[in-house]
Specification:
By secondary structure, this protein is of the alpha/beta class. It folds into five domains: about 120 residues, Rossmann fold (3-Layer(aba) Sandwich); about 100 residues, Beta-Lactamase (2-Layer Sandwich); about 210 residues, P-loop containing nucleotide triphosphate hydrolases (Rossmann fold), CATH 3.40.50; about 70 residues, 2-Layer Sandwich (GMP Synthetase, Chain A, domain 3); about 70 residues. Helix content is about 30%, strand content about 30%. It holds the Pfam family PIN.
Length: about 625
């Protein structure tokens, strides 16, 4: 009898099992296409490849013992066929080999068997081998207060245990996990997820696999991506509803009133996802069509709420699909990168209620992450509610509004502009204002948020802008002192007095008109602080080494400072510690200064002098 096994039969070990149980003389013809596929899988670190190669070695031993005749037949696969294995290209090559050899095709692939029968081939189908225990082998490490378990080769098992907000990272076993044990656990988890209806593989990349098994999310890292096998299993330890939180009635009314844009913010482990689940269940019970966008999918919601992941690896495609599904609300977990904020904004502006989960250490920080990623005037249309979670409870709720007014701290009526007011939901008092000031985006704390600050945001920005303007026309050192909301004193070198003031006061008047402030120009000798030319303005901190060193790029039209990891943040740019200017990092991840401007000239001079250019949080 002649047998041609396909890849599935070899991986399952069904070939040696079949011939060992049969007294009939058997010739096993292994297609070279099978060998190539197994080699490819083994090179990619997949256990199936190694298991298949082990089966070929067993067949070789049986051939050496005279139990079977072993032949390798057929042609090697082409690169295009190898990359199209999931589309059936290699299966087709194997069927051709079985036909040419006049052999029986041995397979544990149901589709392969049906196609071969349709083509008139002799087929022997064997059930696929079930891999894995079908259960979670590391579940023994969990108890009622365990949120996550952390296992790694050559270390003791650890876990995070306790109530939300009071988690402790602790050793849970004195027995060190060796490599063989870790590999066994990792393989069993992956195989059980593939075989069990309770699990699935969320992500599978060389070195990293994300598994969802019941309510556990498990990340399995392997070398060379990690320096050893590591298993991190996480599960929610509580499930809440909206009634368990402060402001429950007010939040219910707010969410049910109309579709809104909500950011749920907090630090890792604070309980953001638990609160998001409660919001999702409330909205579903309130007759809203609710979907989720998650990667990985680990929100614990009811079956009526469909959970979507990244379609073809892209959340933009998921969003396009959801717009056809027409949900009333979508829970987006997590909104982290610029692309996530863009997708969130697009769906919200399309009329879908959006609830986004965002990492932030303060409530206002969640909103500021939109700055530079979304047009400033559109932010209240994208997000009108910010909920900050701390230690599993609702700590702060902000209402986001737009008004045209004179910003707090300024008095001149001609300085009125669109201002985003961030209002404390509990007290109905403004906590922050966000607006543009002399081409810069500034966030100004108000009321209690401003207490304990030596200098308000608007004062700081005003001082920096005054210093920048004067430094663009003065040749020597400049100090700035604010005196009230609309007055400032500028101290310059004696030789610069007439130059800064200009003929008939014209030059300083132009600066005053641009800034909306009255400026008095004096010499450094008249400065009560007597800082002298060797000192620095309040904005300059030459000894501050905390900034990030950057290398500006000079193009034909701009001087560009790349800041990819700081999109939307307001930062100071300094040269050897001396303040140059303040800017907000654009949505493209850079600061662009037009060449020919005073700021660009200063920056280029600093580059020419090989000064250290650093960027600091504003």
């Amino acid at each position: 009898m002649k047998l041609v096994p396909d890849t599935s039969a070899v991986i399952d070990g069904r070939v040696s099992e079949r011939v060992e149980s049969d007294d009939e003389e058997t010739t096993v013809c292994v297609p070279e296409a099978v060998v190539g596929e197994l080699e490819s899988q083994a090179n990619q670190g997949h256990d199936t490849g190694w298991e298949g190669l082990s089966e070929l070695q067993r067949l070789s031993e049986l051939a050496d013992d005279g139990a079977i005749t072993l032949e390798y037949v057929g042609r090697h696969t082409k690169p295009s066929e190898a990359t199209g294995a999931h589309e059936g290209d290699i299966d087709a090559v194997i069927r051709d080999v079985a036909e040419e050899q006049g052999a029986t095709l041995l397979t544990s692939d149901q589709v392969q068997a049906e196609v071969a029968r349709a083509k008139g081939l002799s087929v022997e189908f064997v059930e696929a081998r079930v891999r894995g225990s079908g259960d979670l082998v590391i579940e023994e490490f969990f108890d009622d207060q365990t949120m996550s378990v952390h296992l790694k080769t050559d270390t003791k098992p650890k876990a995070k245990r306790g109530a939300i907000g009071e988690m402790h990272y602790q050793t849970i076993s004195e027995e060190v996990s060796d490599e063989a044990t870790m590999k066994s656990w990792a393989d069993d988890i992956e195989n059980s997820a593939r075989a069990s209806p309770d699990g699935f593989i969320e992500l599978s990349e060389p070195g990293m696999t994300i598994v969802q098994f019941r309510d556990y999310r498990i990340a399995i890292a392997r070398p060379p991506f990690a320096d050893g096998i590591e298993i991190t299993a996480v599960r929610p330890i509580v499930k809440t509803d909206l009634d368990d939180y402060e402001f429950a009635d007010e939040l219910r009314d707010r969410l049910a009133e109309r579709q809104r844009g909500v950011l749920i913010s907090g630090s890792p482990g604070a309980g953001k996802s638990t609160f998001a689940q409660a919001v999702a269940e409330f909205l579903n019970d309130s007759d809203y069509a609710v979907k989720t966008m998650e990667k990985p999918r680990d929100l614990q919601v009811g079956p009526e709420i469909t959970q979507y992941t990244a379609l073809d690896g892209q959340m933009e495609k998921t969003a396009d699909s959801l717009l056809l599904v027409r949900p009333d609300y979508t829970i987006y977990d997590e909104v982290r990168k610029t692309n996530d904020f863009s997708v969130f904004a697009d769906m919200r502006l399309a009329g879908v209620g959006m609830v986004g989960v965002v990492h932030a250490t303060r409530a206002i920080d969640a909103l500021q992450r939109l700055v530079g990623r979304v047009e400033l005037g559109m932010i209240p249309q994208v997000v009108d509610t910010v909920v900050y979670i701390e230690d599993g409870r609702v700590d702060t709720v902000y209402d986001v509004q737009t008004q045209v007014k004179v910003p707090e701290g300024l008095t001149a009526e001609d300085l009125a502009r669109p201002v985003i007011q961030v209002v404390d939901f509990e007290t109905n008092t403004p906590a922050y204002e966000i607006y543009t000031f002399n081409r810069q985006v500034v966030t100004v704390p108000l009321g209690e948020e401003a207490e304990g600050r030596d200098e308000t945001g608007v004062s700081r920005l005003a001082r920096q802008e005054i210093e920048r303007e004067i430094r663009s026309i003065a040749r020597g050192h400049v100090d700035v002192e604010l005196q009230g909301q609309n007055n400032a004193v500028v101290y310059v070198d004696d030789d610069d007095i007439s130059y800064v003031i200009g003929k008939g006061g014209g030059r300083i008047s132009d600066v005053e008109d641009r800034l909306g402030l009255d400026i008095d120009v004096r010499t450094h000798d008249e400065n009560p602080a007597n800082t002298g030319s060797s000192g620095g303005s309040a904005a300059a901190t030459p000894d501050d080494d905390s900034g990030e060193i950057v290398t500006p790029e000079v193009t034909s039209r701009h001087v560009v400072v790349r800041m990819d990891e700081h999109v939307g943040e307001t930062v100071e740019v300094r040269a050897d510690g001396d303040y140059l200017f303040t800017a907000t990092v654009g949505r493209g991840g850079d600061i662009q200064v037009s060449r020919g401007s005073a700021i660009a000239d200063e920056l280029e001079q600093a580059i020419d002098r090989k000064q250290k250019i650093t960027v600091h949080p504003a």
